Amino acid sequence: MNIGIDVGGTYTDAVLLEKDRVLATAKVSTREDLLSSVLEALDTIMKGIPAESVSRVALSTTMITNLIAEKKYDRVGLLIMPGPGLSHDSYRYPTDIHIVTGAIDYRGREITPINLSQVDKAIDDLAAGGYRKVAIAGKFSCRNNSHEATVERQVKKKYPDWDVELGHKVAGQLNFPRRLTSTYLSCATKKKYQLFIDSVQEALAWRNIKAQVFILKADGGTLPLSYSPDVAIETIFSGPAASTLGVQALTPPGKTSVAVDIGGTTTDLSLILGGQPLLSSKGARIDDFLTHVRTLAVKSVPIGGDSVVERVGREIVVYSERMGLPFCLGGPLPTPTDALKTLGLTTLGDQQRARQAMNMLRGSSPASVEEIASEVILFVVETIVKEILGMFVQWEQEPTYRVWEVLQKKRVRPDTVVGVGGGASGFIPRIASRLGFFPVVPPYASVANAIGAAVARPTLQVSIRADTEQATYTVLEEGYQGKLEKYPFGIDQVFELAKEWLARRAGKYGLESNLDGLETTRSEVFNMVRDWVTVGRLYDMTVQTPRGILHHIGAEVGNNGN
């Protein structure tokens, strides 16, 4: 049996699956005490089920996505060594940035030493500004991390309790601006991510569940929870990936559709082409910044069922902020969920309180509470429709989409919207009508994220860095360094080495070593030239076992705790 758990900003969902059958579901409020929420969800789905019958637990969370969408992450200062190249004016982030002299070249050689006096001044300025977290990144730190390590030592010498994130640990590939963004966001969200992990692990231990535990990555693959804190940034779009896989599992194989997950805090958009989620070719985009996070082509829109609604003059405005539960569930302010309840479009909450919430929005308007509710719903629908149309412009630029379009033998867009999440039944028919699409709200739509996590195929990855001049290679995930023994050594040998280590890691985690259809998620080659002669090559390659889902869901529910 598999368990899927999704911890969202509003609800924590859980499902218990036996192959393609849903045995039980749970939806509980996500409280500040995450442990109690996870325990309640587990207890609901595990009634009468022995703990030892669970073989795997898979997790997803929209918490990090929500923090970023609402800009509620921790304050982080940036201390960077960009070296020569882009103008320093190019580095614009919503925080204090300190640029330090010091540079490494693409081979990993120091060309300018670190200016320690600048480092000390930057640290003091950050401390004076109230910062207690700092992200440190150098342009070619993935080739030589000595400068980042030096700056970290200076920070820890003065402030040993500060949280420090290093660029080379977050993202080992080239492209400094993306590594910088990834490092910044990793540092800003890591503490709350660790709280999530600790709460889940404690809950599983309390219920004596000793199964393998994985967390969903942004690309729909998984990571063993045991080492995911070191690459927390990879799970930054874990929630949207879970909803996408949930839609994939809840619809027939081979279908093409737009997936819309309407949660309490955000609405996640993604695209499934021919039964497969569309993968972004550029990495995860956060606002106007690209990261090194490999991700499905998703977008999180900061609007959901619990978003705050206010009247501003004659206009109804729905804000991105969430201030608690909907008014009809005992919350402090009107929300779109209250509008749905007023019109009888959701079973959640108290009808009288929902109408009271809409009455709070009337102001001097002669409109009835039903008309106010319709206005709120229209605002949400138009916002989501606009975002979907904007995403189509981006989706249509993806190579996979272009191939799909060629196979259709005409220029065409998908014409089905599949809605999941708590607000799906109320909003999806209206969104589909506005787009001219067919609406689908599948069974178990309200717990689709947990289903997506539960059916996600377990994956493992290995990152190899090989230096043929030095005849050495490193397995980044294992911290292992060995000697290259095969000559001549080229890209094919790197791939074979990665396969060998993947098989070892699969054995280590007790997984089947399915090495057919391996994905090469990163491949870089740099020639090392001396006196006009190539004296060696640097290879960087990351391979991953195939992503996908284990089963499509179609059976009737057994013990339903939803």
Helices and strands in order:
Blueprint lengths: L1 E6 L3 E8 L2 E9 L4 H12 L10 E6 L1 H7 L7 E5 L15 E3 L3 E2 L5 E3 L3 H13 L4 E6 L7 H13 L4 E4 H4 L5 H31 L5 E5 L5 E3 L13 H13 L6 E6 L4 E7 L2 E2 L7 E2 L2 E2 L8 E3 L5 E6 L2 E8 L13 H7 L8 H10 L8 H27 L3 H10 L7 E5 L3 H12 L2 E3 L7 H8 L5 E7 L4 E4 L4 E4 L7 H18 L10 E12 L2 E12 L14 E3 L1
Number of strands: 28
Gap from first CA to last CA: 19 Å
From the alpha-carbon coordinates, what is the Rg to the nearest angstrom? Answer: 25 Å
pLDDT under 50 segments (min length 5)? 555-562
Helix content range: 25-40%
The major sheet is characterized as:
7 strands, mixed
Which percent range describes the beta-strand content? 25-35%
Shape: globular
The whole-number mean of residue pLDDT values reads: 85
Order of the strands making up the biggest sheet: 12-11-4-1-2-3-28
Contiguous helical run count: 14
Helix and strand content put the structural class at alpha/beta
What can you tell me about this protein's structure?
- Helix 1 packs across helix 6, helix 2 crosses helix 6 and helix 8 packs across helix 9.
- The chain has 14 helices and 28 strands.
- Strand 1 and strand 2 form a beta hairpin.
- The C terminus is likely disordered.
- The strands form 7 sheets. A 7-stranded mixed β-sheet has the order 12-11-4-1-2-3-28, sandwiched between helices. Strands 13, 14, 15, 18, 21 and 22 form a 6-stranded mixed β-sheet that branches. The chain has a 5-stranded antiparallel β-sheet with strand order 25-24-23-27-26, with helices on one face.
- It has 562 residues and is of the alpha/beta class.
- Helices cover 33% and strands 26% of the residues.
